Amino acid sequence: MGSNLPLLRSQPSRIPAAPFLRLSALWIQITGTWCNLECTHCLNASGPKDPWLRPLHAETARRAIREAEALGVKEIYFTGGEPFLHPAILTLLGEALEVAPTTVLTNGTRISEGVADALAELAAGTSYSLEIRVSLDDVDPEANDRVRGQGAWEKAVAAIRRLDARGLLPIVTATEILMAERDARTGIYQRFRDFLLSLGIEKPRVKIIPVFSTGRLAGAAGERLTEERLEGFDRGVLQCAESRVVAHGGVYACPILAGLPPARLSTGSLEESFRPVALYHRACVTCHETGMSCRNY
């Protein structure tokens, strides 16, 4: 993945920044870019072979959770890669739930009956909410699997059913990668909602996110934000104003750019990363234009 570091060094005066306001959300990139799938649109180019961003040691994640608690964090998210590949994920979810509402983002393929039971037990034993976000890119199996790999749809839908059966109310997360004319007419959100209702899920929850020009869809060129473009815009609404990501190598500005050197804010503590964020990447344009947030809402 390209970091665009030369741009950051050669034109520092032209790169706008977002302020740091507060630590509302801690993201833990628990498996780095290690994943059992290799989706064509993956925003950080995750996959099963030689992940370019290494998984975190469990103790690193624990230290981040403890520090975030002391700093007043409001939510904790686990992402990757595929978090359920990490041997300590269930234990770490339990520890995070002692601190704040906790979410795990997953492709669903690793959620067996046993894992679903364990998640339900965690949810029942805490006063904070446990949210499971399952990725699905189309309600049609063939279309979905063209993007996510053969058999991914069947396993993800099975996970959605298992979670719902245990009262965990999964959030189905889809990108706009396969949005076609039919969705422009009827709405991609409505299409997914109707599909979940057809599965017998009485309280469907859907989050739609845009496609980012990063990871496997990164291009060599593209527009960037400028001070002129942001004139009059409240930069405090950008997710990097309230979020930090702990990943291998340090603390980063946002989960989309975790692992990229220009997005690294600290190689030590979370508190050391509490400073303005350079809005240097093409992904920053997408967040600005769409109001995108990686959080649950």
What can you see in these coordinates?
It is globular, with a radius of gyration of 19 Å. Strand 3 (75-79), helix 3 and strand 4 form a beta-alpha-beta unit. The protein has one domain (5-290): TIM Barrel. It is an alpha/beta fold and 297 residues long. Helices cover 30% and strands 15% of the residues. Helix 2 runs parallel beside helix 3 and helix 3 (89-97) packs parallel to helix 4 (113-124). The chain has a nine-stranded mixed sheet, with helices on one face.
Which helices and strands appear, and what pairs or packs with what?
Layout: H1 5-10, E1 17-18, E2 25-29, H2 58-70, E3 75-79, H3 89-97, E4 102-106, H4 113-124, E5 130-135, H5 141-148, H6 152-165, E6 171-175, H7 181-186, H8 188-198, E7 205-209, E8 243-247, E9 250-252, E10 264-266, E11 277-278, H9 282-290
Parallel strand pairs: 2-3, 2-8, 3-4, 4-5, 5-6, 6-7
Antiparallel strand pairs: 1-11, 8-9, 9-10
Helix pairs in contact: 2-3, 3-4
Q: How much helical structure, as a percent, in the residues?
A: 25-40%
Strand percentage lies at 15-25%
- SSE series: HEEHEHEHEHHEHHEEEEEH
Put simply, the count of helices is: 9
- The 3D shape can be described as globular
- Estimate nothing, just give the exact number of structural domains: 1
The biggest beta sheet reads:
9 strands, mixed
CATH superfamily name? Aldolase class I
Q: Any low-confidence stretches, pLDDT <50, length ≥5?
A: 1-13
Q: Quickly give the structural class.
A: alpha/beta
